[in-house]
């Protein structure tokens, strides 16, 4: 099930809100609205992105940007529990009994792996196919991140270009001293737009997409190892512990607290 990433939404809303509040408190916010400056900064940097990448890559990235705002990745602990159940079922009823479970899975990668295992494909072949899928998935993710990083690097440069254009136009009005101040303000707005685009939107989005890619790659690596382990007949408890090693270790205090709770519950059951 797809869930909203509230951290991304809150970050952007808070950033825009604080910026808008600062402009309103500082005077007339209309001074910061200039269409020609937007054309140079937004339009110019986007045109440079089109030159740097293929049209298909740019088209695809608008589809993947939603991953920065939502996530449908499984919880790793739920995945470990699911693999434990599948391993126990495979031991009781055989690998063919997992065919119905494969049909209920939403993740295409997971479903494909389970289906190949049910079809009795050799473990080494399953590993090669799934690792190839992971490699191409990582490549697609890298292109998406690269587009936003490049756009984030280009936007301040186009802001500077817009400022230079404004300065040239300002120098052409040296015979009108009263127009120099407003012209200088307009010239600096493009630099402002470029900095906002780069440091509030594009570079953070590239970072969130990179984080999401790492999470998905870890889940797929866990699925790959789990599928191979079930096919090899590994003990379900050993399988769960092996998959749990992918997760970061819990703080010792929290772990000890959890063990105390478990021991307390066990003692309660004894009495």
Automatic annotation (TrEMBL):
It is found in: Cell membrane. The keyword DNA damage does not apply. Pfam families: MotA_ExbB, MotA_N. The chain crosses the membrane at residues 7-25, 31-53, 150-172, 184-207. Residues 11-94 form the Motility protein A N-terminal domain. InterPro entries: Flag_MotA_CS, MotA-like, MotA_ExbB_proton_chnl, MotA_N. The keyword Transmembrane helix applies. It is a multi-pass membrane protein. GO terms for biological process: bacterial-type flagellum-dependent swarming motility; chemotaxis; proton transmembrane transport. Keywords: Cell membrane, Chemotaxis, Flagellar rotation, Hydrogen ion transport, Ion transport, Membrane, Transmembrane, Transmembrane helix, Transport. Residues 103-220 form the MotA/TolQ/ExbB proton channel domain. One of its GO terms (cellular component) is plasma membrane. PANTHER family: CHEMOTAXIS PROTEIN MOTA, MOTILITY PROTEIN A. Belongs to the MotA family. This is Chemotaxis protein PomA. It comes from Neomoorella humiferrea.
